[in-house]
Amino acid sequence: MAACSPGLDGVGVSTAGGGGTGAAAVDAGAEAPPFDPQVRASLVPFGKGEETSGHAPGLYDFALFANEAARATMAGGARSFPLGSVLGIEHQRRDGSGKGPSFFMEKRSASGDRFGGWRFVAVDTQGRVVDQ
Predict the structure, then answer these.
(1) Residue 79, SS3?
(2) Span 88-131, pLDDT tens digits
(3) Residue ranges per domain, the chain?
(4) CA 56, CA 60: separation in Å to the nearest integer?
(5) Of the candidates 1, 21, 36, 88, which lies 20 to 30 Å from 75 by C-alpha distance?
(6) Contacts of residue 7, Cβ cutoff 8 Å, sequence gap at least 6
(7) What are the CA-CA distances from residue 3 to residues 9, 11, 49, 61, 117 (Å)?
(8) How far is residue 125's CA from residue 122's CA, in Å, rounded to a whole number?
(9) How many CB atoms lie within 10 A of CB 11?
(10) Which of 57, 56, 87, 48 minimizes the C-alpha distance to 70?
(11) Where are the beta strands (DSSP E) in 14-112?
(12) Do the Cβ atoms of 25 and 131 come closer than 8 Å?
């Protein structure tokens, strides 16, 4: 997360236990509606892309994206994001051979659940949601 400004330590870092695997893994209660892969079109870049050190170090470069709600929060230095905030990270292979996976987090509720109301989504290189 070196590309984040100083007030953003830990954005996208989960300290909670895993939520399971596959799209069927959701928190207790009613299943949330599916993540809309088209949401990526509403996100704008922030920070500067660089080599990833967390997900397959040395294999990917990454770029960070956010929607307006998330960008306004980050610009103001706040640590609590409003409902509707979306953050994303896209990976590109360093050798230029193609895209890597994308990951998104969307603030869906003010819940005190173990994920803090965030939904985490993994999208494969073909744009398919593979885990949420």
Answers:
(1) coil
(2) 999 999 999 999 989 999 999 888 788 889 999 998 888 788 88
(3) 60-132
(4) 7
(5) 36
(6) 74, 77, 78, 79
(7) 10, 11, 7, 12, 24
(8) 10
(9) 18
(10) 87
(11) 44-51, 60-66, 86-93, 99-107
(12) yes
Single pTM value for the model: 0.67
Tell me how far apart the alpha carbons of residues 132 and 119 are, in angstroms, rounded to a whole number.
7
Q: Any residues with CB less than 8 A from the CB of 63 and at least 6 apart, and which?
A: 45, 49, 89, 90, 92
Non-local CB neighbours of 31 within 8 Å, separated by 6+ positions:
none
Query: How far is Cα of residue 43 from the mean position of the Cα atoms in its chain?
Result: 11
**Owner of token pair 């360093």:** 94
Type of residue found at 132: Q
Minimal CA–CA distance to 62: which of 16, 99, 26? Answer: 99
What the block records as the tokens of 126 is 């073909």
CA 132 to centroid of chain Cα atoms: 11
Q: Residue 104: helix, strand or coil by DSSP?
A: strand
Q: What is the pLDDT of residues 39-83, one digit of tens each?
A: 888 899 887 777 777 767 889 998 999 999 999 998 888 888 999
